[in-house]
Design brief:
Shape: elongated
Order of helices and strands: EEEHEEHEHEEEEEHHEEEEEHHHEHEHE
Radius of gyration: 26 Å
Bound molecules: zinc ion
Helix content: 25-40%
Distance between the termini: 31 Å
CATH topology of the largest domain: Spore Coat Polysaccharide Biosynthesis Protein SpsA, Chain A
Number of strands: 19
């Protein structure tokens, strides 16, 4: 397997009318270009993913998996960017190369496998769809109605024998809008296979809303006793206080309530079923560590968090003093914006264990979307 997946993301999105270019805007809970990366990696068809970017867009790219993805700078036009990427991977002596537009996040892994299968017998395999609208060709003042049966619409990913595409690109003098046209202009055979209707290109801002999702809510509650001289952790933040929360873990009631909210919304029972308190290996575990596998699963199953509302119930410490710190910490831990999180402090009129400053409780409600 010496195949490479090139994602062209250097475009300027002139039709998109937004500060953030379309390939870096959020779509179905993650940045648009990430969908293509995730699917290419999940398909296990490729040695590396090559992300071709515009140098000016670097600030929009976070947490790139450097082991599997190589980022390179593109050129002013699509075919220049593409050739830069081909030149870059030449030293790896690639077998097959897939070229894909970062603004098409919806292709399936099945399509990748299908393209790959056909490339055994052809040098270029292209997915296509058929138009549904009537298409006219304007020739000066006359209109000609084109026969729909004869028209196909090219999509990406397109896949090629590396050497053939490289040679064609090297000697190309035309402006090409996609790589299949290089083969067509040179009268070389191209295999067209059925593409996917949902694999549309994000062009306008409203395209970002073309996603189907389901809404779910999860509620979480937790309470721990306070113990003298223990460190107090709330929302992953070490809060200066004379006591900390007693428990098998660090007792972070905020994170425990959020974990239960996430598990609730995804219908995965509760924190105790994942971290049983009788298991020695979880003794003194940090709650930030407990959150990691739960979040990984959550995002892997195409969920995204809309907002979290939290009630922290205690007499002391005063929440207002640490609110900002806790919200920043939660936003970092959960990969959210700060304005998606709300934290309220609640006292209990000196009633019961909490009122006597012997315990801290927390409840959280989480609203999530699952993209389908
Ligand atoms: Zn707990």
């Amino acid at each position: 397997m010496n195949n490479y997946f090139i994602i062209l993301a250097a475009g300027n999105s002139t039709r998109f009318r937004s500060k953030i270019p379309k390939q870096y805007s959020m779509y179905k809970g993650i940045q648009t270009f990430q969908h293509s990366i995730n699917k290419a990696l999940e398909s296990k068809l490729f040695k590396k993913v090559i992300l071709v970017i515009n140098r000016k867009h670097k600030k929009y790219i976070h947490n790139l998996d450097k082991k599997n993805i190589i980022e390179i700078n593109g050129g002013k036009l699509r075919h220049i960017s593409c050739f830069k990427a081909l030149k870059f991977i030449k030293k790896f002596k690639p077998n097959k190369v897939f070229i894909h537009d970062a603004a098409r996040p919806n292709f399936s892994i099945k399509l990748l496998k299908n393209l790959n299968k056909y490339l055994k017998d052809y040098s270029a395999v292209i997915p296509y769809t058929k138009p549904v609208e009537t298409i006219l060709n304007k020739n000066k003042k006359n209109f000609e109605i084109l026969k729909k049966e004869n028209i196909i619409i090219n999509q990406t990913p397109q896949c090629f024998n590396f050497k053939k595409l490289y040679d064609l690109s090297k000697y190309n003098k035309f402006l090409v809008t996609d790589e299949s046209s290089l083969f067509i202009k040179n009268n070389l055979k191209v295999k067209f296979i059925k593409g996917e209707e949902n694999n549309f290109k994000i062009t306008k801002k409203s395209d970002l809303n073309r996603a189907n999702f389901e809404n779910y809510y999860g509620i979480g509650f937790d309470i721990h006793r306070l113990k003298k001289y223990k460190k107090l952790f709330l929302g992953g933040v070490n809060i200066p206080y004379h006591s900390g929360l007693q428990g098998h873990s660090d007792g972070d009631v905020i994170l425990h309530a959020i974990i239960d909210g996430l598990l609730g919304a995804t219908r995965k029972k509760d924190i105790g079923s994942i971290y049983p308190s009788d298991k020695e290996k979880y003794k003194n575990i940090r709650s930030t560590t407990m959150l990691l596998p739960i979040l990984e699963n959550f995002y892997k199953n195409r969920y995204s968090i809309e907002n979290i509302d939290i009630n922290l119930i205690c007499e002391k410490p005063k929440v207002s003093k640490y609110r900002k710190k806790i919200i920043i910490s939660l936003a970092n831990l959960l990969n959210l914006r700060q304005n998606q999180i709300n934290l309220k402090g609640k006292t209990v009129e000196k009633l019961g264990l909490i009122g006597k400053e012997k315990a801290i409780a927390c409840e959280a409600i989480v609203s999530v979307k699952k993209y389908v």
